[in-house]
Amino acid sequence: MPRIYRAMMVDGGKPRIGSSARTLGVRLPPSLHYDMTVEADGTVRPGNGGMSVAPAWRVLPLYRIPKRLKHLATGACGNDHLACWRMGAGAFQQAPVAPRLNLLPDSSQHGVVEPAAIMPVDEYRASLEATQDQWVIDEQ
Question: Which residues of 98-108 are buried (b: 16+ CB within 10 A; e: fewer)?
């Protein structure tokens, strides 16, 4: 399973579940800044986006890295209510990250966790949420 990082809010020692760029989930249309396309029949498919992740927290956008970490990441200016979370242990390459979820890198510093197959959007969201216990804070 690839090692992935994402900055998310903390909720009871786990990443907060939700549908924002700062939670464990995705933004969907009609949101102005959505993360993936939903088909007319309510399904999502590989290759149409997903939850953004990075291969290391230090390559996250500076506005996502909590400003308390600016001694480790010059210019970090993110909300201090965010934490840098890590999941997995393998190389940042296209591979399964959890049941029904795959990592699709789109550059050396960014990728998306996308559905592994066509599925209803609610199943995709539930699959993301099911990873909640696998994330650990990693700000070293």
Answer: bebbbbbbeee
Domain count, the chain: 1
pLDDT, position 35? 96
pLDDT digits (tens, 9 = 90+) for 2-35: 999 999 999 999 999 999 999 999 999 988 899 9
State the sign of the Cα–Cα–Cα–Cα dihedral 14, 138, 105, 102.
negative
- DSSP H helices in the chain: 121-129
Find the domain containing 119 and state its range.
Answer: 4-137
Global pTM reads 0.96
Instruction: Classify residue 135 by its DSSP letter.
Output: -
How many angstroms separate the CA atoms of 74 and 128, rounded?
Answer: 31
